[in-house]
User: Fold this.
Amino acid sequence: MRLLRERPLPGEARFAKLADGQVRAVTEQHRIDGLVGAHRWAGPPYRADFRGVKGSGAGGRARRRWYNRRVNDLSLVTGGAGFIGSHLVERLLANGGRVRILDNFSTGARTNLAFAPKFRRRLEVIRGDIRNLSVVLRAARGVRVIYHQAAMRSVPRSVKDPLGANENNVTGTLNVLEAARRCKVPRVVYASSSSVYGDRPDLPKREDQAPAPISPYAVSKAAGEQYAAAWTRLYDVETVGLRYFNVFGPRQDPKSQYAAVIARFIQWGLGGRPLEVHGDGSQSRDFTYIDNVVEANLLAGSVPGAPGEVFNVGCGVRVSLLEIITRLEAILGRRLERRHTPSRAGDVLHTLADVSKAKRLLGYSPLVDFDEGFRRTVEYFKSSPKR
Assistant:
């Protein structure tokens, strides 16, 4: 097996050409077999280089770069083996694009990439960590858009490990932005969170409301937004932030102690276990089905006029935890046992998104409402071989 690499650094993914023409992402400790296509570090066909483009100075470049260059369809998705990232990768590939994944597989799973073999000639998988700038720099070469999904996503986990939240969500985001600047990547779409609004009572949440984060996770996401805004102003890197409101859907992992509530409720309900409800269950969320989040990312990666902005991504409807249980009981046709526990530190009581800005500037509109998304998610877990 002959390695194809460019002075790899310790722990960095590199590519090995196999006899059957496939390419696998290889690290010193791990191999991810059969998931990747025939691209090499040596070069995607187009570089994000705007030298010689008329009007490519600081004033005109942001407006013209999407129209005055050869088309490059290579996207980098950090966290591409995770819940949200894998859905985004699958959609980009289905649309005919090429995708490079950067994931350390700490929470991402190979099973999330079951669709990969049919796209192997247009997909690369790099096992690497966004906290390593050298790895991110190599992953960002020749990329048109970076979709930055990798993060420590859990509020309670961030409360237990605030330093880890900072390293993953602040340092990791900073590395992605810096890689975009050095590699001349035209646009970075990054995942933020509704948690930046904190627990203020005013609803719905609008992007012009001042952030008031109450958890390390929320603080780290707010810091990432500020770094992105600075990179847009100082370095002409187009950044678009998406404040996700409680994403749910197929492939969400229900087994972690930090798992999202819908996935856990469904798993417990199907398994006959009591549903653990933090607090009295009256707290409500604007739960957003995964297809809506993917659509928002695709729009944010392509629509002119969005750089430097942040957008809410939700459905604009609140559902309480008790209402989720009632819906689950109706689908399963039986009553579910409930066990109430104390409220968790860092959790907010209510969220609701005002998505009018995303509709106006991105053309975003929720494709799937909560009830349909919930039904699809229950069916997914019912048909899943492992619960």
Notes: The chain has one domain: 2-53+69-244+289-313+347-367. Residues 2-53+69-244+289-313+347-367 form a domain with the Rossmann fold fold (CATH 3.40.50.720). The longest strand covers residues 187-193.
